[in-house]
Structures are given as C-alpha cells and as structure tokens.
C-alpha cells in the first residue's frame, strides 16, 4: 500500500493526473485501471479518475500485481487493402480502437493484426506492435502497420519527414465559403476539457491542414482534406476552429447524428514501400453508412 497527501499547490488536480506525477513507474493506463477497480481510495472512498483533489486529502493506492499490459491476439475480421513482407494497409472501421489502453483491451486493431499476422514490429512497444500512425476511434479508412522493425523505422521516417500524403473526406456543418483553404493553427490539449484538443491557445504544436470543396449541400459541405502534420484530433480541431465542425462530431460542437460517429474518412495514403522505394497509393472506399448519410442531404 502506498499513501500520498495532497499539498495545497496540488489542489484541483485530477486524481489520475496526480497519481501519474507521483507514480511515474506505472503507465497512465495502469493507474486508471486501478482507479476503476477501486484500488485507489481518496479519504477512504473510491473516486473516479476525473475527481478533483482537495488539499490535505489522503490518497491510498493498492498496487496489486496484475497481468502486464500488452497486446493479445484476437480473432477479429480485417479488411486488408494491401500487404507484403514489410507493411499491411487496413481499412479500419469506425468504432474500432487502434490499440489497448485504459479500459479497452479487447477488440482492438492491434489484437486483430496479431491474430492475422502473428508478429509485428516491436518498435512501438508491447502495447502498440506495428503501429506507425493512428486514426481516432470514430474515424474509418486507410491505416498502415509495420510487420518488422526495419519497415517500422522506414515508415516512421516517412511520416516524420511529411513525405506520406494523407487525404481524408470530411462532411462539415455549414457552407464553406472558399473553394480551397489552409489552416495553420497550433494545437494543444484543452486545459478545461482534457478529452479535447484546442486551436485557440498560443501554445501547442504547429499543425497544418488544407482543404478543397468537393460538393456543397444546403447546410453542409463535403471536403477533401490533407494534413501536413499528424496532431491528435487535428482535422476535427482545425475545421471546428473555422466554424465548420465535422458533421456528427459532438466533441467539437457538431449536432449529434444517429450513426454516432463523425463523418470523417481516411480515404487515401500515398507512401514509399520500405524495401523498394516504390511509391504506391492505397484507397479505402467510403463506408456505406457515410454514403447513406450524404445521400440523405440531397
């Protein structure tokens, strides 16, 4: 059992953030699991991860041994768009989490990849084997995974140098006035709502998003979007920052939709094959539910 007392300067901090700062040997995911399982007590009572601490409160943690956090193979169908000895391109469905984390261990893309291919690159660690880049849970479309370490390092270099061309389709609320545009706004974690990102602060990481109008509707606009950087929620944050949130993206101010997902699809990736250097383009068809959603606007 470990015990901590909240000092005056730490009052107002979230429980999970406080523990992460005091117990750096454990991952954020592991600490959140303990909170959810009731292994963490504040003043003798179990609290949520988001609980705001008060000065002088005593936190007790029971770090009982648990199975290490690592990805496990799981038989899940995959829509494979391309594969060779180095890389796999998957058409990720909306609703599928890319890798395990706090409260999510089953049904991930990594688990499915491990079942289908047996072994992936280990550069990303035991929780994220093969994962070179990510898509949000609610976003569908093309994703790459590396089958061995050399391929992973090559693909990571391509993403870091911005030589991978990433193209998305996004249906946004409102009528976008200009046929083309570019958004250059830094992105940072929202200090008030920690599940969100924001482009309203001076601080943050640089991010670049460009778009062109494909089709206009009465109250919506369909865009092709390209990103020069890969920040968390980048497209969603940037489009919301110019007053055109992605349709269905309630986290960033859009009205809810019965499909319960944002109208955002990664439809094209262009990159160089690690072994040969040949530049190839992989496309993923727009899911039926998004096509039906768009058709309903006509």
Provide tags for this entry.
27% strand; 3 domains; 298 residues; Pseudouridine synthase; alpha+beta; single chain; Structural Genomics Hypothetical 15.5 Kd Protein In mrcA-pckA Intergenic Region, Chain A; four-stranded antiparallel sheet
Helix and strand arrangement:
Elements: E1 2-5, H1 15-22, H2 28-36, E2 40-42, E3 45-46, E4 58-61, E5 80-83, E6 87-92, H3 109-117, E7 140-146, H4 149-160, E8 165-173, E9 180-184, E10 188-189, E11 197-198, E12 208-216, E13 220-227, H5 234-241, E14 264-272, E15 279-283, H6 288-295
Parallel strand pairs: 7-14
Antiparallel strand pairs: 1-4, 2-3, 2-4, 5-6, 6-7, 8-13, 8-14, 9-12, 10-11, 12-13, 14-15
Helix pairs in contact: 1-2
Beta strands, count: 15
**Helix fraction?**
10-25%
Give the low-confidence spans: none
Rg calculated over all Cα atoms = 21 Å
Mean pLDDT: 93
CATH class of the largest domain: Alpha Beta
Write down the oligomeric state.
single chain
* CATH hierarchy: architecture of the largest domain: 2-Layer Sandwich
Q: What do we call the CATH homologous superfamily of the largest domain?
A: Pseudouridine synthase
Largest sheet: 9 strands, mixed
Shape: globular
Query: What class do helices, strands and sheet pairing give?
Result: alpha+beta
Strand and helix order: EHHEEEEEHEHEEEEEEHEEH
Residues in β-strands, percent: 25-35%
Q: How many discrete domains? A: 3
Q: Could you please say which CATH topology of the largest domain applies here?
A: Pseudouridine synthase
Number of helices: 6
Spatial separation of the terminal alpha carbons: 61 Å
């Amino acid at each position: 059992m470990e015990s901590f007392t909240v000092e005056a300067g730490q009052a107002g901090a979230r429980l999970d953030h406080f523990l992460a700062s005091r117990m750096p040997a454990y991952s954020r995911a592991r600490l959140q699991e303990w909170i959810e399982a009731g292994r963490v007590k504040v003043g003798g009572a179990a609290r949520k991860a988001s609980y705001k601490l008060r000065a002088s409160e005593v936190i007790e943690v029971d770090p009982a041994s648990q199975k290490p956090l690592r990805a496990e193979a799981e038989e899940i169908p995959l829509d494979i768009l391309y594969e060779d000895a180095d890389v796999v391109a998957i058409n990720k469905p909306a609703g599928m989490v890319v890798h395990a984390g706090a409260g999510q261990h089953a049904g991930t893309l990594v688990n499915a990849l491990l079942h289908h291919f047996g072994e992936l690159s280990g550069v990303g660690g035991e929780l994220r084997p093969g994962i070179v880049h990510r898509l949000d849970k609610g976003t569908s479309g093309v994703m790459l995974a590396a089958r061995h370490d050399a391929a992973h390092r090559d693909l990571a270099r391509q993403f870091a140098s911005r030589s991978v061309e990433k193209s998305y389709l996004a249906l946004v609320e409102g009528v976008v006035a200009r046929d083309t545009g570019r958004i250059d706004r830094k992105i940072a974690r929202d200090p008030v709502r920690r599940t969100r990102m924001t482009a309203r602060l001076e601080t943050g990481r640089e991010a670049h998003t460009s778009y062109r109008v494909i089709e206009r509707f009465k109250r919506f606009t369909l865009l092709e979007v390209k990103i020069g950087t890969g920040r968390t929620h980048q497209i969603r944050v940037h489009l919301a920052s110019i007053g055109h949130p992605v349709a269905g993206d309630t986290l960033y101010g859009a009205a809810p939709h019965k499909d319960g997902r944002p109208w955002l699809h990664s439809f094209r990736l262009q990159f160089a094959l690690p072994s040969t250097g040949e530049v190839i383009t992989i496309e993923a068809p727009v899911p039926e539910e998004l096509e039906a959603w768009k058709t309903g606007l006509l």
